[in-house]
Fold this sequence. Notes:
heterotrimer; A: alpha/beta; Rossmann fold; three-stranded antiparallel β-sheet; globular; C: alpha+beta; 31% helix
Amino acid sequence: MPVIPRESHSQRYERWVYLTLLRSMANPGQWENFPKTDMHSPTGLLGAFQMGCRCLLDAEPMIWCEPGNSPLISALSDLRLRWASDPSEADYLLLNLDPSRIMNCIHTLKVGTPLYPNASATLLIALPTRNGSFQKANLSGPGIRGERIASLPAIDGNFWAARNTACRYPLGWDVILFSNEAVMSVPRSTNINLAQPETESGPEPH
Amino acid sequence: MKCPSPAVGERGGLQVTLTLTGQEDRIKVFDQGADESVNAANLRRFIARMTGCSTTTDTTQATILQSRHRIPEEMLRDDQILVLQVPDPEPLRSVEFDTSRAQEMHAFKDYGLMWLKLYEQLVRYGSFIQGASYPVMVHKRYVMSPSPIPRWDTPKLNQSAHLTILCAGREKRIYAIPPWTDVEPLEFSDRFFHVEDHSEWVCRLSGVRHKFMNEIPLADGTSGFELSDTGYLSKALKSGSDPAQSAGACYFDADGHFHQPGFLKFEEGDARKE
Amino acid sequence: MRGYGPVHPTVNEIRLSHADLIVKHPVTGADIHLGPIRMSQGEVVSTFSEKQMANKLNLGFCATFGWNEIKVIAGSMLDMAMDLPEPHASQTEEYVLYHTESVESSGFCIHYKLPHYVTFNSTVDNLRRVAQNPPKQTSTHETT
């Protein structure tokens, strides 16, 4: 009998994380829960964020991380990532301390070129608190049936407006948001209508 | 050492399916609509053995569907993933063989040659003569090859509930259509895309009409017809000629009407016009 | 590896058989039967996507000594492609050299043995439509 490879627990968990990310990209503006598991896996916000990073990153792309985020950098050290010195040259930006720090250079992020729209930045953002303020928005585009009312985390008063300015499909950047146990994606193809600019505070609707 | 494995037209889909599938999945593999062809049966057994997943021939029961050249008649749901095998991922190759130039045309949405090709077909033959792999416009931006599915299946991709992943193993290219995305066959405002006309054909096994049929040459020189989607055929056989009793809702209803009214258009005077 | 040439045929029939080898005796001039040898013959059909041949099926043929399914498929495709009126990219040096990697191209030719009846069905549907509604003959002097 041939020896059939069996999927290990950690491999299965990695595949589930990958599927969760796939589904979140296919359903913009919707929180997709990470798989519940009693297997040994990193827990908490850093854990979920780390699993997402591990799923997406390898030694090829340029990664930028907030200065002073040594816990994350050391947690990912085995991936042999290439670190970018400036956000404008990064393919992935890891933001899990204070995402609003990116605001001063947000207009310099890579949006790709007509020939290579894929040569653009992806923002991986961990939400520091689940009870932060949220901004109501009307989403439409691929992956959304008609329209979807979503509560986008108000990372900074101007973040989503800046995102709308940067995204001229097919150019633009993609955003993946992580909470403790769920992930939400906002790809560049999504239209965000920030009709109600006032922010609302309160627990995150799930 | 890398095992030299020739591309037999399955590698792309297989790579995607093996990446996604695990013990918890139930897969359906079909080729030309048939679950039991040698090719489909071999792939299904291989995937099940490698991943520990279970298998099915029922479209509504599957979590992941790997297909070559067909999309099932029954509608897929938002929790299902369709994997299509692609031999030629570049829709512009027939008008621009240089891949770099074709990429420039995509970059600037320069599809003039593609429209010209369709126009020439109209002038020369009176209708579009593209068979399977009919080019589509995705999200009103990119022309895409939907893989060699018949035109009957092409509209099923428009505003569909499921995620579609297309992979060309030989060319090492992968692309996807998210759920609820505009996927429109290329057509002019007065000359329209048409699906294959099987409206007169009746399945000789189940009596079902208005689905995609295989045409089987008979000894006396005539043709017999059978449903191409064998999973649907087995449901139709269970419930007489009214498969609606056991099958899920279909993209084309029992009278041949597409489930999105108005998406398929007909010229003035066309007998198939509703 | 990138696509294929202008011809993506449907295999009509592949025949593997024996043929009698008969030679003339050098002295007596009589025919002598030396025995059977293996022969393969392949027939493929295709419409071309270009020029005036697209509204009918065309035949490509190839025969070889020995039993070589892949070789006769490849040969009968070449038979069709060589007759094309205008040179296609697949007839350029760069394309040919790139695509004659033997493992890849044998796999590609084997794939023609997979069923293609759905795509063929779709093609036949077009041929019938064109035959039923031939394009209107437009005057060459029509100015509108």
